[in-house]
């Protein structure tokens, strides 16, 4: 305690002090009156004071004459031995900021410190580096301020710091230290790393949406600190918000919008900007854009078959369809839906199936019915689900038989000739059952043909009536050949040939073989071989059979024989010798040929080696024997066919020979026939013919003139010695 006093007279002898708990009742209850001498202060110890109670010090003075002054009492002192109550401190103003973008300053704000006794006298604040465990700013006295801004700092980006605050009261009691939460320095902008548009259940970027789609805008951002918020907008250009204004997103990975107000085909952008907890604002990031597609794909063309459109199919279990021309100028075609039915657009055979983005599809596992028409249908679906008009093919008809109907075979074949007398029975076999066919029959020579047509399910028979014209060509045209499925085959032209009259063996030659058959039929009264009478000109005769053999039959044969030999024919001179042989003799004037008795017909064919030799054939005749002959001078050939009606016919043929000066070769080829054209013998006889003069002959030499040699020919009627003398123009002998 401290006091002062004075006494102007005798002076102060002593001071006394006492301590009480009352300022009015001074009894020295705490400290009885105690002399301090003349000191004006005293330290009072050994007390048992109670915290919070007020104590009063009283002082009185006694002068040297023992006069005692009045008691003077202090205003009291309260006991305070408790430190101030600690409060809390935050980085920021009213709440703790965990992030700081400024590296040069930080602000501390505290509250809650109190002292119920002497009261708070002052505060101290400190800034500390958490990561490096050191003070950035040591304890700083800020008096009674409850906020303090640190300035001129050099804080590190990504550094972590915290604040400390303590209070001291009037009597010097120091509170506990209040520490803030850590705050981190972040002066970098947040960055958008991913931004795209998609739909529920999808994870990939989608560029096109349907008008009623909900668009999910997915995004990912990054920051060296922590992102506070995402702001989202949609614009018609990047970084703009003319469609949907900037707004904070509900969550930190996506936002959803609807498309019902967006225009078809227009390009829109999702725009995003980030703000981190340090209030750093990132740059605007835009997506690659998206569009709305409200228009279906343009329809194309659908064809049955692998490439070219088919009208018929032969498989009952599968069929293929192809299509082209479908297009979509918006989101593009995603896939096609393909179906199959018995009507255009029908689906009863195959319900629509998604075949992907291909251009053809094979239906399998089917049970198609013969004769039923089926239609393939295709619809295009774009990437947002718009579906085009369902387009159907023109249909194909199920035909279990391969290919269109056709004439599979015909009878008779080309090697069989039609009978002039009986006509013919033509049969046309089809490759499958046929519903209808047009049939026309023509004669190449223009004859009016009589026939009867008989239709079967798989064939047509034609009964062609005789008589027919020799060597005529019959053409049958089959058109509009339509099967049970409606499939029409190609027109078919079939050709048949009438036999040549008198060519009984159908070897296209009129010769002794045919003559033998005529004679056989004649003598046996077999009218199958009857020829006449005939109408027309050779070789196009029409036989009018009267069931009688007479001269008209022979005339028909003879005319055909001469018609045939009217065209130069190379004779058969290479016959192999067998069977009956001819008796052939030759002299200087003639060739004699003797025919065996049982032979009823034959042919003698002659070939001479040069034009100086010739064989004179007998005149043609009819009667007991038939003789027909023809000479082909240009070929040095001649032929004679003969036949016998009875055994009285001449069997020896004497044929005059004419020849020149030189030897020649005569070749005789023969064929001998019995009944019905059976060959009884044939062969080839070759003879050398040497001319013999009837008187002496000396021929002109050749060449003439000559140098150095010439040839002189002469002839002798008999053998003998010959002397030949040569003279020059002056008559002088040159050589003999």
Structure description:
This protein is mainly β and 736 residues long. It folds into 7 domains: 12-78; 88-185, Immunoglobulin-like (Sandwich), CATH 2.60.40.10; 191-292, Immunoglobulins (Immunoglobulin-like, Sandwich); 301-398, Immunoglobulin-like; 407-497, Immunoglobulin-like; 502-692, Immunoglobulin-like (Sandwich), CATH 2.60.40.10; 693-736, no CATH class. It is 4% helix and 42% strand. Strands 7, 9, 10, 12, 13 and 14 form a 6-stranded mixed β-sheet that branches. Strands 16, 18, 19, 21, 22 and 23 form a 6-stranded mixed β-sheet that branches. Strands 25, 27, 28, 30, 31 and 32 form a 6-stranded mixed β-sheet that branches. Strand 18 (227-235) and strand 19 form a beta hairpin. The longest helix is centred in the last third of the chain and has 15 residues, at 551-565.
- The second-level CATH architecture of the largest domain is Sandwich
* Rg result: 72 Å
The biggest sheet, with number of strands, parallel, antiparallel or mixed sense and barrel status, is: 6 strands, mixed
Query: In the CATH hierarchy, what is the superfamily of the largest domain?
Result: Immunoglobulins
Through-space gap between termini: 208 Å
User: What is the general shape?
Assistant: rod-shaped
The CATH class name of the largest domain reads Mainly Beta
Poorly predicted spans: none
Beta-strand level of the residues, as a percent range?
A: 35-45%
Number of domains: 7
């Amino acid at each position: 305690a401290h006091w002062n006093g004075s006494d102007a007279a005798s002076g102060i002898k002593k001071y006394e002090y006492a301590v009480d708990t009352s300022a009015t009742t001074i009894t020295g209850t705490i400290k009885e009156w105690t002399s301090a001498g003349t000191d004006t202060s005293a330290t009072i110890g050994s007390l048992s004071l109670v915290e919070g109670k007020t104590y009063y010090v009283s002082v009185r003075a006694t002068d040297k004459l023992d006069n005692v002054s009045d008691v003077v009492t202090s205003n009291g002192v309260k006991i305070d031995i408790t430190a101030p109550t600690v409060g809390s401190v935050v980085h920021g103003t009213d709440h703790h900021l965990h992030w700081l973008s400024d590296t040069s300053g930080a602000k501390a704000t505290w509250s809650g410190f109190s002292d119920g006794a002497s009261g708070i006298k002052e505060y101290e604040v400190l800034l500390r580096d958490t990561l490096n465990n050191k003070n950035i700013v040591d304890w700083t006295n800020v008096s009674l301020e409850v906020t303090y801004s640190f300035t001129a700092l050099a804080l590190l980006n990504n550094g972590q710091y915290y604040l400390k605050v303590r209070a001291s009261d009037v009597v010097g009691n120091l509170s506990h230290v209040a520490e803030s939460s850590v705050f981190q320095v972040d002066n970098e902008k947040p960055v958008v790393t991913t931004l795209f548009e998609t739909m529920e259940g999808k994870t990939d970027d989608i560029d096109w949406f349907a008008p009623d789609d909900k668009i999910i805008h997915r995004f990912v951002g990054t920051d060296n600190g922590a992102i506070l918020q995402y702001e989202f907008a949609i614009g018609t250009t990047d970084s703009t918000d003319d469609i949907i204004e900037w707004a904070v997103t509900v969550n930190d990975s996506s936002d959803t919008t609807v498309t019902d107000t967006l225009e078809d085909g227009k390009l829109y952008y999702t725009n995003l900007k980030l703000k981190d907890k340090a209030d750093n604002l990132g740059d605007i990031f835009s997506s690659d854009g998206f569009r709305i597609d409200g228009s279906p794909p343009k329809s194309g063309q659908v064809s049955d078959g692998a490439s070219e459109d088919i009208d018929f199919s032969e498989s009952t279990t599968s069929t293929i369809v192809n299509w082209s021309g479908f297009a979509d100028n918006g989101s593009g075609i995603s896939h096609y839906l393909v179906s199959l039915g018995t009507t255009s657009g029908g689906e009863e055979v195959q319900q629509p199936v998604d075949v992907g983005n291909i251009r053809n599809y094979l239906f399998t596992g089917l049970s198609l019915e013969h004769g039923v028409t089926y239609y393939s249908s295709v619809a295009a679906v774009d990437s947002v689900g718009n579906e085009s008009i369902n387009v159907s093919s023109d249909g194909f008809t199920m035909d279990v038989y391969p290919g269109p109907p056709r004439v599979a075979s015909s009878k008779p074949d080309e090697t069989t000739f039609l009978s002039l007398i009986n006509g013919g029975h033509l049969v046309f076999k089809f490759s499958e059952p046929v519903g209808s066919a047009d049939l026309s029959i023509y004669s190449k020579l223009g004859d009016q043909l009589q026939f009867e047509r008989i239709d079967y399910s798989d064939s047509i028979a034609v009964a062609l009536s005789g008589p027919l014209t020799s060597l005529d060509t019959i053409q049958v045209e089959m058109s509009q050949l339509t099967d049970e499925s409606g499939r029409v085959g190609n027109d078919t032209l079939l050709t048949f040939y009438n036999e040549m009259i008198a060519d009984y063996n159908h070897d296209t030659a009129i010769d002794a073989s045919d003559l033998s058959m005529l004679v056989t039929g004649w003598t046996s009264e077999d009218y199958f071989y009857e020829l006449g009478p005939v109408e027309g000109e050779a070789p196009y005769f029409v036989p009018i059979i009267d069931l009688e053999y007479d001269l008209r039959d022979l005339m028909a044969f003879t005319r055909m024989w001469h018609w045939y030999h009217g065209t130069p024919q190379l004779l058969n001179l290479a016959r192999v010798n067998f069977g009956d042989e001819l008796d052939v003799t030759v002299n200087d004037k003639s060739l004699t040929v003797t025919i065996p008795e049982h032979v009823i017909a034959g042919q003698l064919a002659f070939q001479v080696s040069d034009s100086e030799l010739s064989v004179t054939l007998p005149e043609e005749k009819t009667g007991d024997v038939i003789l027909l002959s023809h000479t082909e001078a240009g070929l040095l050939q001649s032929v004679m066919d003969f036949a016998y009606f009875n055994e009285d016919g001449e069997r020896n043929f004497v044929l005059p020979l004419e020849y020149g000066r030189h030897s020649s070769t005569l070749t005789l080829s023969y064929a001998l026939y019995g009944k019905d054209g059976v060959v009884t013998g044939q062969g080839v006889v070759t003879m050398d013919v040497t001319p013999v003069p009837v008187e002496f002959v000396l021929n002109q030499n050749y060449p003439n003139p000559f140098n150095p040699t010439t040839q002189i020919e002469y002839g002798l009627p008999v053998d003998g010695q010959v002397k030949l003398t040569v003279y020059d123009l002056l008559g002088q002998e040159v050589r003999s």
